[in-house]
Specification:
Dna Ligase, domain 1; 12% strand; single chain; four-stranded antiparallel beta sheet; alpha+beta; 6 strands
Length: 172
């Protein structure tokens, strides 16, 4: 036979009891009170949540495990692959130097750098960006090479048409 009696504070803030542990268990099952409801053992001055009393452990659900806040792991910022950028720049410069100043060399360099950059971007897409720059470098390098070769061919044809003499500019 249980000898402890309990007072409980209801949701309305009014005290209820004294009640035997059996009655308190019934109120818990009916949902009239919860483990968070303040309770007091008759004859003691302190009030505690009902979940702290061992008499009601079998009726109350086990305490919830503390939740650990999710940790934020920042994603690694992707950056343009340096070879893709260099290939794009070489392709641009090769167009402006088509038939002079070694434009063909820059065009070939643009093709090589852009190709290697594109391969690296495809190999590590989570780390590198710049696919568009690499493709643009390939296109510009190809155009620069084509125009350079076309200019060199035109110069050769002009030289052959002049009897093997290269074009010379004379001041008046």
């Amino acid at each position: 036979m249980e000898s402890r009696l309990y007072y409980l504070l209801g949701g309305d803030g009014r005290p209820y009891g004294p009640a035997r542990a059996e009655t308190v268990r019934q109120w818990l099952c009916e949902g009239r009170i919860s483990g968070a409801s303040p309770a007091n053992v008759v004859g003691t001055p302190d009030w505690h949540p009902l979940s702290r009393f061992p008499d009601f452990a079998e009726v109350l659900p086990p305490p919830a495990l503390p939740t650990v806040p999710a940790t934020f792991v920042p994603a690694i910022a992707r950056r343009s692959h340096p070879l893709a950028v260099a290939g794009f720049i070489c392709g641009l410069v090769s167009l402006s130097c088509c038939a002079c100043c070694g434009g063909e060399v820059l065009a070939i360099l643009a093709l090589v750098l852009s190709t290697v950059g594109l391969v690296e971007i495809n190999r590590q897409p989570d780390r590198y960006d710049g696919r568009g720059l690499a493709i643009a470098g390939l296109v510009l390098g190809g155009l620069g090479l084509a125009l350079g070769l076309l200019g060199a061919g035109a110069g050769l044809a002009t030289s052959l048409a002049n009897g093997g003499q290269s074009f010379q500019f004379h001041w008046p």
